[in-house]
């Protein structure tokens, strides 16, 4: 699971699968749990269906929005399409609470990076918090706190 800011110190994430690891394969489930006793959080895909945000997930992927997760509440998403998935916390996006998940292996000349390049309408702190795709692929997981 990849994350910018301190998203996962507040909103923990885990990949639920036999293989484990930081890069889920197709048809794997990712579950987020709010471990922060004093705040609610969301996990919301960058997608026009979510408050008109730019598309930063694969075009064929289903958008998601957990709504507000109270402490100890969880939300899961099943990833069925390869690509880069960027997401954010609705109340904390301005502070850089965003995350990135990569499903599969990037294609050398594919459309993987087109959605990631869509930076219009994103707060500067959010843009700064995303780990680079290359860093995620090299380290397999990136957490910033």
UniProtKB/TrEMBL annotation:
One Pfam family linked to the record: Copper-bind
Entry-linked InterPro entries: BlueCu_1, BlueCu_1_BS, Cupredoxin, ET_Amicyanin
Keyword annotations: Copper, Electron transport, Metal-binding, Transport
Sequence ranges assigned to domain Blue (type 1) copper in this UniProt record: 71-103
Example of a GO MF term: electron transfer activity
Protein name as catalogued: Blue (type 1) copper domain-containing protein
Organism: Sinorhizobium fredii (strain HH103)
């Amino acid at each position: 699971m990849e994350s910018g800011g301190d998203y996962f110190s507040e909103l923990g994430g885990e990949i639920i699968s036999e293989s484990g690891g930081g890069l889920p394969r197709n048809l794997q489930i990712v579950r987020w749990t709010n471990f922060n006793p004093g705040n609610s959080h969301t996990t919301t895909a960058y997608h026009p269906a979510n408050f008109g945000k730019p598309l930063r997930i694969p075009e064929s992927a289903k958008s998601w929005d957990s709504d507000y997760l109270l402490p100890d509440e969880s939300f899961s998403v099943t990833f069925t399409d390869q690509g880069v998935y960027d997401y954010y916390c609705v109340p904390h996006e301005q502070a850089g609470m965003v995350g990135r998940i990569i499903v599969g292996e990037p294609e050398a000349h594919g459309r993987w990076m087109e959605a990631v390049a869509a930076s219009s309408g994103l707060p500067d702190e959010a843009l700064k918090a995303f780990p680079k795709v290359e860093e995620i692929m090299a380290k397999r997981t990136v957490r910033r706190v």
